[in-house]
Design a protein that fits this description.
It is a single chain. This protein is mostly helical. Helix content is about 60%, strand content about 5%. It is built from 18 helices and seven strands. The strands form two sheets. It has a five-stranded mixed beta sheet.
Amino acid sequence: MEYTKDEVAKHNKSDDCWVHIDNKVYDLTKFMENHTGGNDPLQIAGGDATHLFYSIHPNSAKKILMSDDFIKKYYKGNLIEKEKDNNQTQHNSIFYTDLREKVDKYLETNKIPIRDSLKYKVYSILKIALFFICYHYVFNRNKSILLFLIPMVMLDFMIGVGIAHEAHHGGIARPKWFRWFIKKFSLITINGAWSYYWMWDHNVLHHGYTNEKQDTNKFYSEYIRLSKYFPKMEMHKLQHVFSWFGYMIGLIKAKFLLDGWELTYASSSIGEKVTHIIFKSLWYLLFWIYPIMKFGIEKIWICILYQLLCGLYYDTLFVINHNQKENEYPEYETNDFCKKQIIHSSNYSSGSHIINLLTGGLNHQIEHHAFPSYSHHTYPYIHKVIKEVCSEKNIPYNSYKNVFKAITSHYDYLKYMGS
């Protein structure tokens, strides 16, 4: 059988989930019941899952995909000839396969688990406990608000990136009930985001098309020019000054938009819809309703200030990972997916275990984009392997000495893009 992309796109529900990988169409509806990642295929239901499949799964998954048993159960046919993407990015390149083998061998030799380390589960629970201790002092005691506000913002970020972000990528996989709860509680209830929207916007678009036209993270706002694909406006000449205010309000705006609910409603089961409503209601209760009831409407400034600080902290540490002059290499054209991820990402404090913990691995952005489903505790180790391979292959590997150097470089990038 042959299908058009539009025909495949109609199968985008939890009870009817099709995808295409390397121009081949699969029905994964029943497969999700036993899938280690549960219903993760829903994030790309009806679409092209090629980059997700190769970037998230180990090399052994390729054998499963091509096995007679898998083909018999889930293979439906091919895309029609004129819609096949025969010149597509090489997701299954020799370079990517070899790099993964070297990284996996290094981790195995040094007995470092790829994911689901018990001590990092304990560490995750500890972070959440510390967060709520700070929450108590910020929203229950007038005299300690400012003292605990900044640590609470930092812990919010550590939970958002080190737990929610990681769990949605598959860095936390087992047991399934733990992953299901921790990823929704941390992302929806603590961070105020939407699970399905995050997976589509971040996992599919940002990771699949880093720094390209489809990358919505580059089109942050029409007022902040972060991409060469975005037309210049007169006001962009001053974006190095006002962008920081945009970063501050961007996140709080996203938390109130209903875009995430629309995607959740369209693709998920009734049970998932209900749980999303419950977890999101808890966010409104914790960060808006309870504080106002506790202090009165005149203390709403605490709620607003907290969200603004979170926005500035989150967005600043996110944008510096890809929006640098050093991430633009017009002379280094490649259709190798993994090489693109490396070239268009930037590190800071590479190899530092402390900074890695404080940022949830965000400082090792190159490692994260090459191996998004690996737990961030592996990044300070595998960065040595990836950097060495990049040196051998003459692939640019951009790493700043510290976060302040990265922010300063991003400031220069804002001026450059606005000039």
